[in-house]
Amino acid sequence: VGLGTDVCCNVIHVQPLDGRAPVRDRHLVIDLQRLQTELLHPDRIALFLRAVLVCLAVAGTALAVNLGLHEKLAAYFHLQSGESALLESAIENPVTTVSDQGISVTIRQTLANSSGLYVLYEVTTPESIVLDPEKNWHMEGFLDLSSLPLQAPLGSSIFGNDIVEVTPHKITAVAYAYTPVGTMSSGTVHLRLTRLGYWEVSSSPQFIPIAEGTWHLTWHLTHIDPGITVTPPALPLPDGSGNIESISLSPFSCVVISTGAPASDWPVSLVLQNGSTLPLDASNGQYTTGRLSASGQENPQYYSYFQFHPLISPSDITALVIGGTRVSLGAS
Cα–Cα distance between 110 and 90 in angstroms, integer? Predict the structure, then answer.
């Protein structure tokens, strides 16, 4: 029944079995005037409209979360307006929560490419545990990628936990794991957390735990952005000690595999389509270098992983310059 002024109802007539004239059943006759008055009562209309608005608000919130990068994750990557569109294919919103010792951990969003995974999660404490935002809080644990069909040399994976925001009863954090020389694909991911506490700043820093438990969250990772990988033909490093073997690009990282020496031994920069350059150093992000070959091996292999800000579409990068060596990225 709608909210308009026309209300329809059927009056049922019962046909007696003995053939007499139909009898109007007074028990089934509805007082249309009373029904219309009740339906159009201001209190009922207001209640109905409030229910509609609540439904629209919930639907709108879900839509906003599912279609874009979470504001806390965007802040973590120092994104500028419009940059999150570069990451749409790499975003996923798993729904998983676990509680222990009165503390709940909820996964809010994940961001992945072929070599790295970043997980935004929230830790909610009960009224009895008040978090001082001035303290150096830490959630012990790690992002476990062992169930993924991940191909990477042993020891090349890097793990960490960064606190993004602390309020009296909630910690927002980002757990990350990236394998600069690995190739990651869809599969099961685990976030294993064990202790919540803070670091006491002094001449001898000490970790002060306030809760110990087991917060183990599991979900299936399906959204992977493979990025772009370029294999230059036997291009030597600036000093001739080895070669640049491959370059992999995503909107927020660049990985250079080389032999003889790591690429980060020289200044490294990206050349963009508009002719400008972006140095890959501490001013625009961070980088990590490691050795892939066993100690003592001839012509050792290295990786240099650069995570940069702001984000850049791989299609907007035309070349990579290592020292004086320019590597064209026009073909993938």
Answer: 8
- Distance, in Å, from the CA atom of 164 to the CA atom of 77, rounded to the nearest integer, reads 11
Query: According to the model, what pLDDT value does residue 59 have?
Result: 38
Distance CA 126, CA 135 (A): 18
pLDDT at 33: 47
* Mean pLDDT for the chain overall: 76
Q: How far apart are CA 245 and CA 301, in angstroms?
A: 9
Per the listing, tokens 């004239």 go with 21
User: How confident is the model at residue 224, as a pLDDT?
Assistant: 67
d(CA 168, CA 161): 20
User: CA distances (Å), 280 to each of 203, 292, 308, 323, in order?
Assistant: 34, 21, 7, 12
Longest dimension (CA), the chain: 113
pLDDT of residue 62: 36
Average pLDDT over residues 236-254: 87
Q: What are the pLDDT digits (tens) for 147-175?
A: 776 555 544 567 888 999 999 999 999 99
Q: What is the pTM of this model?
A: 0.67
Strands 228-230, 325-328: pairing kind:
unpaired
